[in-house]
Amino acid sequence: MSVQDHFSGVAQAYAVARPGYPAALYDAIAEHVPATAHVWEPGCGSGQATRDLAARFAHVHATDPSAMQVAQHWAHRERTANVTLAVEPAEHTWLFDASVDLVAVAQAMHWFDVPAFFAECDRVLRPGGVLAAWGYDDFDMPDGMAAAIEPFRARIEADWPPERRFIKRHYADFDWPFDRLEAPALTLSVDWPFDRFVGYLSSFSAVVQHRARTGEDAVALHADALREAWGDPQAVRTVTWPLFLHLRRKA
C-alpha cells in the first residue's frame, strides 16, 4: 500500500471537528500497560488521542507525516512536558530499538504501509510491549436525519480513498503480529450543536477529494437539508459511532 496524505488540506478543520475518545478505551489499554510507559503515537494528527494518552502514561512521542497536521497539534499551545512531537512517517521513527512500552494508533493505521509499520513496531517495542490500534467507521444517524444524510453520503461515496475499506472491515484484513489480547466492545458518543456536526462532515477526506475532482463543496450543497433535519441549530444532539480496538502484546 502507498502512504497517502489526505488530511493536510483539512488540518485546521480536522483539529477543530474530530471527536475525542471515551475513557473506557484508555481504561482497556491501561489494563495491559503500566502508568510508567513510554508511548509512541504514529499518525497522531492534531492530537485527539495524545492528550488522554499523556494523562495516563509517562511520556508520549506523537508523530505524523503531515507537517500541517503536526502544526495544529494542541501540544504546541499547551507545552505539555511529557509530549514530544515530530514529523515522521509511521513506517520509520527515530526512536531507539526496544524503547517504548506502547504503540497507540488512533483512527490512522489504514493509511500506513502496514507491513512496514508492523516491522517498525517490532523494532521499537520492548519485550512485553503492547500495540493498540483503534478506529470508527460511519456514525449512527441521529433520529430523523437519514433522508438528509444519505444523499450527502451518496454524493461523496466515489471519492473515498481505497484505504477506507480496511476501516470498514475493522482491520480484519491485516496480518497482525504479536499475541492477541481481549478488547471490549466500545462506543464513541458526543453531544454536538449543528455547526460542530457540519464541521465534522467537512473534515472527511472524501469531501476534500470531491472538491478537488468537481469543484463542489459537498457539505455546502447539502447544508440546508441537513439543517432542516437537525432542527434548532443551537440544539445539542447525540452522535455515536461503534468503536473497535485491537490489542496485541509482543512476546
What count of helical segments does DSSP give? 11
Give the C-level CATH assignment of one domain. Alpha Beta
What is the tally of beta strands?
Answer: 8
CATH-wise, what's the superfamily of one domain? Vaccinia Virus protein VP39
The CATH topology of one domain corresponds to Rossmann fold
**What sequence of helices (H) and strands (E) makes up the elements?**
HHEHEHHEEHEHHEEHHHE
What structural category do the secondary elements indicate? alpha/beta
Q: Compute the CA-based radius of gyration.
A: 18 Å
**Average pLDDT over all residues:** 91
Q: Descriptors for this entry?
A:
single chain; 251 residues; Rossmann fold; eight-stranded mixed sheet; globular
Tell me briefly what this model is.
The protein is an alpha/beta fold and 251 residues long.
